[in-house]
Amino acid sequence: MALKNSYYERLAGGYLFPEIARRTKEFQVFHPEVKIMRLGIGNTTEPLPQIVASAMALEAVRLMNVETYSGYGDEQGNSKLRQALSERYKKCFGVRLDADEFFISDGSKCDCANISSIFSHESIIAVESPAYPVYVDSNVTSGKTGQFNKGKMQYEGVYYMPCTEMNDFFPEVPSGHVDLIYLCRPNNPTGAVAMASDLQPFVDYALEHKAVIIYDVAYVDYQKERGLVESIYQIPGAEKCAIEIGSFSKWAGFTGVRLGWSIVPKELVVEDTVPGELHRMWSRRYTTVFNGASNIAQAGGLAVLSELGQQSCQEVINYYMSNARLIKNGLYDMGLTVYGGTNAPYIWLKVPDGMSSWNFFDKLLNETNVVCTPGVGFGPDGEGFCRLSAFGHQENITEAIESIRMNLRI
Amino acid sequence: MALKNSYYERLAGGYLFPEIARRTKEFQVFHPEVKIMRLGIGNTTEPLPQIVASAMALEAVRLMNVETYSGYGDEQGNSKLRQALSERYKKCFGVRLDADEFFISDGSKCDCANISSIFSHESIIAVESPAYPVYVDSNVTSGKTGQFNKGKMQYEGVYYMPCTEMNDFFPEVPSGHVDLIYLCRPNNPTGAVAMASDLQPFVDYALEHKAVIIYDVAYVDYQKERGLVESIYQIPGAEKCAIEIGSFSKWAGFTGVRLGWSIVPKELVVEDTVPGELHRMWSRRYTTVFNGASNIAQAGGLAVLSELGQQSCQEVINYYMSNARLIKNGLYDMGLTVYGGTNAPYIWLKVPDGMSSWNFFDKLLNETNVVCTPGVGFGPDGEGFCRLSAFGHQENITEAIESIRMNLRI
């Protein structure tokens, strides 16, 4: 008698975004005449730069020609693309990594979910609260957590690191023992960033405890201020204790195209491994259960990494960041308390009058027809906040903020 | 102290194809003047039909335009593509499945590896021997098997179903209890197929034991003879006990583009689930840890499913199948014993003189400069065989067979 993986039963509620979609759809059914304005899911809306789209179109055309057709590539990714990423890290971030320390994936969501599979089933995970739900959910379904505690809005056995107004949304290093520490800077959802002095204690902790930091840099190109960390490997010692995960989704508009990368340095070690072993295990995972990212998407990635490609992508990012300013300033002018939005495409709004996140979601939808993302969906310390996203056409963002300004009863 | 996932240590040797690549590379280093002819990895070589490649080029161009740009799609796949697959199953195979019972992936290798994650950690798996290595390896790394027994060339705790000359390469139903049964028809590597009378006992077994059949149809479009099973759902009762996994890789030349699908019927149940529950769990897995296949690849998939697309893909398949005939007849004329190659792009060659698969691999490479795939890499009962692949340009296939004919010392 086959049995299901019963860990799935531990997953609390629906996954955040499908639940938002469900409530929004329900609202639309009852109010078919209303134009809903979405500041919820962080989905890119602006077209790809010509150099990037045409590189992919050209690659598709090359597949039509017997001389230029290509089938399976290396599972770990096109070697030119890995080399180009290695060069970008050196030139832009001052970080030296071999090309084969980069692994090309079909997007960072998969990497964030799969990375814990090379570590022991007994690993204790630590996550920021709030955080991108994938870090916890992937460990719930693989049995690395306990049951969901509805009172605390937490999974048993997971170490939550509160990111609150009190600590400027940057967590303290764990006081007890943990094995895998997920950090995301610039942060989704709070928009908070990291300086070297913030991250050094985490690297020191990881080295001392033989823990591993899983560092998500999906939004790093949205950082505008100087002196912020761009790669965990800018912190001395991180190459021995940290994995970095990056994405073309928000950097280059590849949310639908699907492309990302992970870095597992050869020097990375845990208690029972020698240098190189975890790197080989991750490589083995790629060759054993994955067949590479789409060749067309990888051709697009190479174009993104060209000089003109990087410039063009930066222009789109600047556009989204002007949206972020519109949202942040608009809400601030209404007297609301807002964070983020300066070095990240997310604005972290403190819900007024001590309402819950989901009640505010419903209120915002009903009164202003604007969809936000309830902060509690990102973890217990997200309660009382909601996330607004700067991804959208400027005229729609302007219209949404105007609707909030005119119609929100606070 | 973090620890590694020690199940990785159980993986026997390198993954088959990287090991072939290593030996081939080594040979080339010592014989730089030699032209190596590859009949090893089943990698497509012929260009995409124009209708398919241009649909993808067009989709890339659409991403350059603000009106037609698209970001995240549904994680489970484009609804039009799911609908088109549902219609193909109905029209071509006489199988009725709802569009939302199809899940679009980035290729069947990932689905084959991930599917067991929705079942209990205690599941006992059964595999054909020989079989595509991913079925076993994915269960080794997730701890669903025991140690590798070098003497038996088997993992402890796995039920191997021998596919040999004695049973025409179709296995008996398990005599003991198993939970997840992996079957692949037409078979990789033996090229053997299935009739309804072959599969009905497996479906009966699965229904009786509440086991699940995971049925891989990656090569179904290579079947030429009539009366062969094209989908497991042609067998009465299969919708309650079987999952089917399909691929655009060999059907439409998408080995590099990456696109596949899985079918988890709503009626599928195991011991501790109600109808719909496993379907919802698989859907939950998609939404939680995956972000959809590339939108460009999915546009290509839709073109494949058009009438002209299906015809055009069939022409490429016919080309490969004429290669298969060349290989099969060439080897047969030399007095060698060969199987497969009639309804599948693989020829299963019985190694002469009782040699081992890897010794024959080395002999073939040294004497004829042809690369094959050692049968033992597919499981213990593959020992004494090797797989030859019909994927290649016809002139190269002809040259390889000529070299074998002239140079192989048997």
Automatic annotation (TrEMBL), chains A, B:
EC number: 2.6.1.83
Catalytic reaction(s) noted: (2S,6S)-2,6-diaminopimelate + 2-oxoglutarate = (S)-2,3,4,5-tetrahydrodipicolinate + L-glutamate + H2O + H(+)
GO BP, one annotated term: lysine biosynthetic process via diaminopimelate
Keyword Transmembrane assigned: no
NCBIfam families given in the database record: DAPAT_plant
GO molecular function (one): L,L-diaminopimelate aminotransferase activity
UniProt superkingdom: Bacteria
Aminotransferase class I/classII large domain residues: 35-404
Pfam families attached to this UniProt entry: Aminotran_1_2
Gene3D superfamilies the UniProt entry points to: Aspartate Aminotransferase, domain 1, Type I PLP-dependent aspartate aminotransferase-like (Major domain)
Protein name: LL-diaminopimelate aminotransferase
Cofactor: pyridoxal 5'-phosphate
Protein keywords: Aminotransferase, Pyridoxal phosphate, Transferase
Entry-linked SUPFAM superfamilies: PLP-dependent transferases
Pathway assigned to this chain's UniProt record: Amino-acid biosynthesis; L-lysine biosynthesis via DAP pathway; LL-2,6-diaminopimelate from (S)-tetrahydrodipicolinate (aminotransferase route): step 1/1
Glycosyltransferase in keyword set: no
